[in-house]
Design a protein that fits this description.
11 strands, 6-stranded mixed sheet, alpha/beta, D-Maltodextrin-Binding Protein, domain 2
């Protein structure tokens, strides 16, 4: 009887191993998004597409909530081959100056504008990624960012004076908020809730999807609708890992990333309406900021980018021109 039971157990283990190895390659996708976030929805959509259309070749496993590391750790793990995909956003401006163009306030007007920028300038961004050891499989988004805090409503830049504001790890975001008069501090997204709850930080800035999924509405009094920056997100691999894949696998991953971008844009637009109401219903006071005042106060950041980044003025002119052509 013991021999029979042992044989059954061995068969079961072999069956599990066979099932687990149905795909030739298992790939890990790490990201910082919380349950219910746009990041989670985007990553899950990409994984489902790959797993449905390439089931014999690739299985993508997803790990959210910074389980595999925070943004900078994930970038390092991509290069080390410990993670196969990540979904960085603002942190890419610390990888290469070219990505800093998306840190310029109000430079992207809407998603159609972003599509035109992608169509005309993707070679620039892919080249910047490649030069730093990465490959952009496709684009998703983080979205249009707004400010929450516990001190006062933010109507004009001077209202930010002295406010301890968490930002992502992006040099231009720090420069922008210093220009506005805030006291910005970069911090990993997974640490922000506690920092707001304990008063280490007065406020933060993020799209509604990140605010709501991280439950910042539970520890913030004010939401000011500034829409100051639109941040794309990048379905990112190491260049070495991507280049080593069969051409058919590369094509399949790229196709699924393109489909995920379509899904993400639709989902993001839906969430903008529903999540603003959710945040308001939680008792957060909402105001619409004076965007003209913020745009005027942003001129020094544009000048600095043009002076400090090689080809910076040409990039600014190109992106703004594509906004006007819609």
């Amino acid at each position: 009887m013991k021999t029979f039971v042992k044989a059954l157990a061995t068969t079961a283990v072999l069956g599990m191993a066979s099932s687990a190895s149905a795909a030739e390659i298992t790939m890990k996708f790490g990201h910082v998004g919380q349950p219910g976030s746009l990041f989670e929805a985007s990553v899950d959509n990409f994984a489902a597409c790959v797993n449905d259309t390439m089931s014999d070749a690739v299985e993508v496993q997803t790990f959210g909530s910074s389980q595999l590391g925070k943004d900078k750790e994930l970038l390092q793990k991509l290069k080390l081959g410990q993670v196969d995909f990540s979904l960085p956003s603002s942190v890419m401006s610390s990888v290469d100056d070219a990505f800093g163009i998306f840190e310029m306030p109000y430079i992207i007007s809407d998603r159609d504008h972003m599509r035109r920028v992608q169509g005309e300038m993707m070679d620039t961004f892919q080249g910047a990624a490649n030069a730093n050891g990465f490959h952009i499989v496709g684009l998703a988004e983080n979205g249009f960012r707004n400010i929450t805090n516990n001190v006062r409503p933010i109507n004009v830049p001077s209202d930010l004076a002295g406010i301890k504001l968490r930002t992502p790890n992006g040099v231009w975001r720090l420069k922008m908020f210093r220009e506005y008069g805030a006291n910005p501090t970069p911090m990993a997204f997974s640490d922000v809730f506690t920092a707001l709850q304990t008063g280490v930080m007065d406020g933060q800035e993020n799209p509604y999807a990140q605010i709501a999924s991280a439950k910042f509405q539970e520890v913030q009094k004010y939401l000011s609708v500034t829409g100051h920056v639109y941040t794309p997100a990048y379905i990112l691999m190491s260049k070495k890992k991507f280049d080593a894949l069969d051409a058919a696998v590369q094509t399949g991953l790229t196709d699924c990333a393109s489909k995920t971008q379509d899904f993400t844009y639709e989902k993001a637009a839906e969430l903008e309406a529903s999540l603003l109401k959710l945040i308001e219903d939680a008792g957060v006071e909402v105001n619409s900021a004076d965007k003209a005042a913020f745009i005027e106060a942003s001129a020094p950041i544009y000048r600095q980018f043009a002076e400090e980044v090689e080809g910076g003025q040409a990039m600014i002119d190109k992106v703004l021109g594509l906004g006007n052509s819609g």
